[in-house]
Amino acid sequence: MSRVIIYKSKTGHTERYAKMLSEELDIPCYSYKEAKVSDNDEVIFLSYIYASKIMGLSKALNKYNIKAIIAVGALAYSKDYVNTLKQTNNIDKPFFYLRGGIDYSKLNFIFRKFLPIIGKDIAKDDKELLNLFKNGGDFVTKDSLKDVINHLK
Ligand SMILES: Cc1cc2nc3c(=O)[nH]c(=O)nc-3n(C[C@H](O)[C@H](O)[C@H](O)COP(=O)(O)O)c2cc1C
């Protein structure tokens, strides 16, 4: 039995985390579309969050033997947020949240137009978040993977 990483990523943050993890754990890493997985492989699944939903998770759970789930979003890490995500996405497996970012240059016209508006509502008085939804930002760091690596090594 071997382990593989499968990821979904729209604008690259999740892909970068997946590749860092692949290097760190020395196991292969595939995008969801290109996944090469044997029946008894253990899968570490990474995907991005849209509207509190971990995209592609339900399908992946039906298809693969998933041993850990890693969600990537724009909001700052907090235990409350992790619990909310676990509940909203019905997660009963090892779960980690990593902060990605917002890259407006890679989003389509609709999201470029509406995310700053929705973001204002989400950010409320949080200046850092307001700035993120206005201008975009990148929070991907190798350091953020520490807990994931400790759990999976
Ligand atoms: C339409 C839309 C909805 C989003 N909803 C959330 C959300 O509910 N929670 C969150 O933390 N981030 C949210 N984000 C931010 C993305 O999860 C973030 O940009 C993530 O880094 C994208 O990963 P990717 O670059 O691998 O595609 C949203 C982004 C978009 C465009």
Task: Offer a concise description of the structure.
The protein is of the alpha/beta class.
Are there runs of 5+ residues with pLDDT below 50, and where? none
Give the CATH H-level superfamily: Flavodoxin domain
The fold-level CATH name is Rossmann fold
First-residue to last-residue Cα separation:
16 Å
**In angstroms, what is the radius of gyration?**
15 Å
The DSSP helix count reads 6
* Cofactors, ions and other ligands in the entry: flavin mononucleotide
| Structural class by helix and strand composition | alpha/beta
Secondary structure tally: strands:
8
- What is the CATH architecture assignment? 3-Layer(aba) Sandwich
Strand composition percent: 15-25%
Identify the overall geometry. Answer: globular
DSSP helix fraction? 25-40%
Provide the residue-averaged pLDDT.
96
Number of domains: 1
CATH class: Alpha Beta
Largest sheet: 6 strands, mixed
Order of helix and strand elements from N to C terminus: EHEEEHEHEEHHEH
